[in-house]
Design goal:
Length: 222
């Protein structure tokens, strides 16, 4: 975020840069590392640099990982990628990858929301993604577009119920009330279709910089 970059940026990107500065400062207080990139390709390059050869890399379910080009870039690296998005992957293999993710060297996911004061908010159906965020993998990388930024915790949870969960339910062909009407009907939504089973609010990390959040000045994922 140097001056030359600022001069090229439009108003939206300038706002994203200013918000990112605030978020990164607050993440740092929470012992979480934060970086901002104007473009996805810069963020993807940085992530690829962060992964040592031979590392076991787990993936949380994420549209952002696909849309940013990160998945394709990871596939070209000399690593053991637990690639749940491989074309011929079986449900059994995906389940094994979920389990292997807990002991991976590095786990990559997005976040459903991030507040301006640096709190990560995530909701899972199964829970393996949020479990890896909390504990297990040695390092966690969170890649997210600035569209996931919310002013506070209340808005973060609202974002999940009004945007992230309904879109994810539709994408996964889940017969939830939100996928039918576009609106959350929490009281009438139950497993196995319900995808809002685990709500995890990450307010900090016991180990400094175990988690790194890479913010991208554009919109990705839900
Ligand atoms: S609780 Fe159910 S209806 Fe509401 S957002 Fe989650 S999956 Fe959709």
């Amino acid at each position: 975020m140097h001056e030359a970059m600022d001069r090229r940026a439009g108003p939206k990107q300038l706002i994203y840069q200013k918000q990112a500065e605030q978020i990164i400062r607050n993440l740092n207080h929470r012992k979480i590392a934060g970086r901002y990139f104007d473009t996805a390709s810069e963020a993807v390059e940085e992530i690829c640099r962060m992964i040592p050869p031979g590392a076991v890399v787990g993936l949380g379910g994420s549209e952002t990982v696909i849309e940013t080009g990160l998945l394709e870039a990871l596939r070209k690296l000399d690593i053991n990628l637990l690639d749940r998005y491989r074309k011929d992957v079986t449900e059994q293999e995906v389940e094994e990858m979920r389990e292997s993710g807990f002991t991976s060297d590095l786990f990559i996911t997005s976040t459903n929301a991030i507040t301006l004061d640096g709190i990560l908010v995530n909701q899972d159906g199964q829970g393996n993604r949020v479990a890896c965020l909390i504990y297990g993998p040695k390092k966690v990388i969170v890649i997210t577009g600035m569209n996931k930024v919310t002013e506070n915790l209340e808005q973060a949870i609202s974002r999940i119920k009004t945007i992230a969960a309904p879109m994810n339910a539709l994408r996964r062909n889940k017969l939830t009330p939100c996928s039918k009407t576009g609106v959350c009907h929490d009281a009438g939504c139950f497993p196995p279709n319900r995808i809002c089973n685990q709500l995890v609010i990450t307010e900090g990390s016991r180990t400094r910089d175990r988690i790194t959040v890479l913010l991208i000045g554009s919109e990705y994922g839900f």
